[in-house]
TrEMBL record:
GO terms for molecular function: ATP binding; ATP hydrolysis activity; branched-chain amino acid transmembrane transporter activity. This is Branched-chain amino acid ABC transporter ATP-binding protein/permease. Keywords: ATP-binding, Cell membrane, Membrane, Nucleotide-binding, Transmembrane, Transmembrane helix, Transport. It comes from Roseomonas acroporae. It is found in: Cell membrane. GO terms for cellular component: plasma membrane.
Length: 255
């Protein structure tokens, strides 16, 4: 059994919009090597939770930690620098750039310096860029798209862009990866490949949080699942436990 707090730990998170608590005292642990599913009906607080983890929203109460160290409140770029990566429901790519450049964009987490500093930093930057390129190529290899590295991103199919998004997140070598509806718009065969990829990513020690409407994928590949309802945890457990949980079945799975 892994120690608590080793991966991503949310404790007592509260975030209200006006008087409405979108999330209301949320505790979630995502351990290294674990695929953790986050599900719940519309309005249950999934998107708000993602935005808190990514640093888009600052919770009014509660703490976040990664690897036992508190995560400072901060912008998404700062989160990336702390080892947190994410994908988006709609893939975000620069169409006229190559697939490789799009993946490399994921690694640019440092702010821009002034011109003089930039000039002095050039040799270091060249080294860093080469390292970044290697990481991006390695990430494309992991998702099976290395052969498309030099293709323009707008030539790719929707399903391929989903995998490019995952590669971009992996290029950060994140300790924690957030996947927002990665199966949307994919075929059954592509979802099977996606599931195998997510398991492989977790096997490398990454903590993975998977927000997904596709229930089969959730129950097939997750180690544990957290079910939200009205901004709170309705149930948390293994897929088998969740599937047979009375309240979950009646409130959400429609059984
Ligand atoms: P989900 O992603 O599970 O559908 P959300 O996190 O989007 O749920 O929403 C949770 C609750 O917070 C809902 O009641 C929603 O109306 C409310 N909410 C979400 N975002 C905002 C916002 N920007 N302003 C006001 N209320 C919001």
């Amino acid at each position: 059994e892994r120690r608590r707090g080793e991966g991503l730990a949310l404790r007592g998170i509260v975030l209200a919009f006006g008087g409405v608590r979108a999330i209301d005292g949320l505790d979630i642990d995502v351990h290294p090597g674990e695929v953790h599913g986050l599900i719940g009906p519309n309005g249950s607080g999934k998107t708000t939770t993602l935005n808190v983890i990514s640093g888009y929203y600052r919770p009014q109460q509660g703490t976040l930690a990664l690897g036992g160290a508190p995560l400072p409140a901060g912008a998404p770029t700062l989160r990336a620098a702390h080892g947190i990566a994410r994908t988006f429901q709609t893939p975000r790519v620069v169409g006229e750039e190559s697939v490789l450049d799009n993946v490399m964009l994921g690694g640019t987490v440092e702010g821009r310096a002034g011109f003089a500093e930039a000039l002095l930093a050039l040799p270091r930057q060249r080294r860093e860029e080469r390292a970044m390129r290697e990481r991006a190529l390695a990430a494309l290899r992991v998702v099976g798209l290395e052969s498309l590295a030099e293709a323009r991103a707008d030539r790719l199919q929707h399903s391929e862009l989903r995998f490019v998004e995952i590669a971009r997140a992996l290029a950060l070598r994140p300790a924690f990866l957030l996947l927002d509806e990665p199966a949307a718009g994919l075929s059954t065969e592509e979802i099977r490949r996606l599931g195998a990829l997510i398991r492989a990513i977790a096997r490398q020690g990454t903590a993975v949080l998977l927000v997904e409407h596709h229930a089969d994928l959730i129950f097939d590949i997750c180690d544990r699942v957290t079910v939200l309802n009205l901004g709170r945890v309705l149930a948390a457990g293994t897929p088998a436990e969740i599937r047979s949980h009375k309240e979950v079945v009646s409130a959400y799975l429609g059984g």
